[in-house]
Amino acid sequence: MDEEAITIRLTRDQAFVLSDWLYQVILQSDDLEGIVRDRAVWSPIYAISGTLDKTLSEIFMPDYGPRLEAAKERLRADLYGGADESTAPGQDMTDAPQAHQIKRGTAGNHGESDRGR
C-alpha cells in the first residue's frame, strides 16, 4: 500500500480553531467512541491534532481565549460576511479556552504529538 503523505493547507486561524475543537472532542469528551464510531478514523484525527499542537504556539499563550475568539470571528466573517452566534444559547465558554490551554500541557499525547515537555 502506498503511504505517500498528504499535505493539508490551513490558515493559522483555521488551524487554531480546529486545534481547539479537536481538543474538545478528543480530550474533553467522555464518549469519543460515540462521536467517532470507527476507531480507524482516530489515527488521522490524532495525527492532525498532534501536528497542530506542534505547530501552534498560540495554544500556550496567556491570552489564549481572546486569540481563539478573534480567530473564530475572522473565520465567521470570511464565511458569512459578519459574525454570527458563537455558542448555543445559555452556553458559557469563558472558562473553556483557559482549561484547554492548561490541560493540553499535561494531557497524554496519544503517540502523535511531542511538545517538548
Largest sheet: none
Number of helices: 5
Dominant shape? globular
Order of helices and strands: HHHHH
Proportion of strand residues:
under 5%
What's the end-to-end separation, in Å?
A: 34 Å
Classification by helices and strands: mainly alpha
Q: Are there runs of 5+ residues with pLDDT below 50, and where?
A: 86-102, 105-117
Radius of gyration in whole Å, from Cα?
15 Å
Name the helicity range: 40-55%
User: What do the pLDDT scores average to?
Assistant: 75
Count of strand segments:
0
Region (Disordered): 79-117
Can you describe this structure?
With 117 residues, the chain is mainly alpha-helical. It is 51% helix and 0% strand. The protein contains five helices and no strands. Helix 1 packs across helix 3 and helix 1 crosses helix 4.
Q: Would you summarize the structure shown here?
A:
With 117 residues, this protein is an all-alpha fold. It contains five helices and no strands. Helix 1 crosses helix 4.
Summarize the SSE layout with pairings:
Elements: H1 12-27, H2 32-35, H3 42-55, H4 64-80, H5 96-104
Task: Considering the chains and any ligands shown, give keywords for the structure.
mainly alpha, 51% helix, globular, 117 residues
